[in-house]
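User: Hey, quick favor. My workstation is busy. Could you predict this chain's structure for me?
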Amino acid sequence: MDLILEGLVKAFQLIASLDPEVLGITWLSLKVSGLATLISVLIGISTGMIVALTRFPGKKFVVSVVNTGMGLPPVVVGLFVTVFLWRNGPLGFLGILYTPTAIILAQAVIATPIVMGISIAALQNLPAKMRLQILSLGATRLQMVWILIREARLPLMAAVMAGFGGVISEVGASIMVGGNILDYTRVLTTATVMETSKGNFDVAFALSIILLLLVFIVNYIFTLIQQRERPR
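Assistant: No problem, here it is.
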């Protein structure tokens, strides 16, 4: 209990003093995870819509693969991304290993199946005849897609929040592909692990509290958007 109280006090001190190192780590965490979530949303929702609204052989197998990907261990993702980005790897020519870009890539791989899986479930849960009704009223296919997205906006926003929560809190992939380099690739989760290994539990608790506050604020904003009343 004393450690938790010390962590609360330390977190307040770090926030109140606007510690440059903590602010930099917090901003990098938000930027990296935010961009990774944006990439996963663009890929996940669009691909999820294609899978949900079309019929093709092996569709159940594809959905099963996506659902399996929702539980990808971050360390496994970190290992594969590291191998691909290694100097002798297929993408080694990019030279982005141990950079924030590598962390964004790894986190996008983690978040995309989460967003895609929830998107598929949300769109498949809509009435089967809705698409035909929309088209029969003269809507184009693009307008139909937009209407379906609006109808499924609550679970789709939940998919965004789940994707963001899955990457802002992960540590394994970030350390493996980013290296936890001070003022360059160190984020809140990797900094917390480092401070814990050094025995600085008060700082580790403080960073954890700041991370929780960051996640709460972002998800609160998403929730406000999600729970807005529909215009009448």
